[in-house]
Amino acid sequence: xxxTKRKMNELxxxxxxxxxxxxxxxxxxxxxxxxxxxxxxxxxVGRFVGSDALAAVGGSSGMIVNLIVGFFVGLTAGASVIxxxxxxxxxxxxxxxxxxxxYGFSIIGSICISILGYMFAPALLEILNTPAxxxxxxxxxxxxxxxxxxxxxIYNTGSSLLRALGDSKRPLIYLIICCLVNIALDILFVVVxxxxxxxxxxxxxxxxxxxxxxxxxxxxxxxxxCDFSLKEIRIDWDTLKTQxxxxxxxxxQSSMYSLSNMILQSAVNSIGTDAAAAWxxxxxxxxxxxxxxxSLGTAITTFVGQNYGxxxxxxxxxxxxxxxxxxxAFAIICVxxxxxxxxxxxxxxxxxxxxxxxxxxxxxIMAPFYITFGFIEIYSCALRGMGDAIIPMIMxxxxxxxxxxxxxxxxxxxxxxxxxxxxxxxxxxxxxxIFFIFYYRYxxxxxxx
Length: 449
Known about the structure:
By secondary structure, the protein is an all-alpha fold. 84% of the residues lie in helices and 0% in strands.
């Protein structure tokens, strides 16, 4: 491995704050453009097709997509942790074996999910109480997306591996290119060809295919960092077992998030199409906030993974503390901006005043409490970087996912409104934050001794 290239990508030496920021910002911008993918879809269908189409793209079908992709991304996160630890320790052979294994797993897994997802898509939409007037469009969007999910899996796998090797810039560049392609195709298929929701789905599929090819090409050319070759893609079962040991809890955790949100989506759908459209618009707007926290969490996982693998616990502790301060600073700025401009921002998606009023009242309940999620995001990602994924998964499942399900079953029926549905978020965030504060402090004391 070239010493010059390796040193450029190592996060085990130098000023922590500067390195973390330089590594974080490309991930943040990349997440922004990934969020822009879905946001542009929502804007185009909301403005040029209607609020029913907006609900179809981001309602039940969006929840199912988030469930599937979230589980896979969480699952493969174990591979990126392993790769970052091996990279930090300088073990090139194990780095390459890990990369080939997770690529093989991604290909096989995506084919299975495409087949099963296509078959069971109607049943899933029915379970979520998808309104009859948007069922057909929701099904079309979901099935097209599932047919091309191999590209989504390959891009997410490749980009997470590049970040594990200390490269957060190339995934950003490729995502920008594909986002621009997606915007152009959205306009072409929906506005010009009038393909409706189907046009948005096809545009996203093509853009994701381009991103998968670009990120795979980057790994093939990264000879100074790893020995990746398409001919060598195969599953090493011992390596996969280690990856899944760390990744499976993350996949389950992500799935439980999505599953609890799907249950909430079902409750929202029962209120009506306007509520479903407002929930979709809200999801796009608060996605701006979550992309900041999620990007910083990704950076922390890689930073902690490399330093933990290199046997530098002091840098692990400092990087987590700095990451937490950064999270709170960005949270305050972002929440202030979103709260101040929520109405004009929601107006980008629709001009339906009923939908806008529902979205704003719901957002006003949730947004002031976003900052509390910092402890969950930073501490859980740091623990994952150390290879500790089981306890964080349990705390998240109980404190957030379990609480949300119980809230919908026992509390929402007492007053079935959007406001009552929304209050479960702040309460569950606060509860789970307390769990993570105590557990992380216990864990960091152990590795420092």
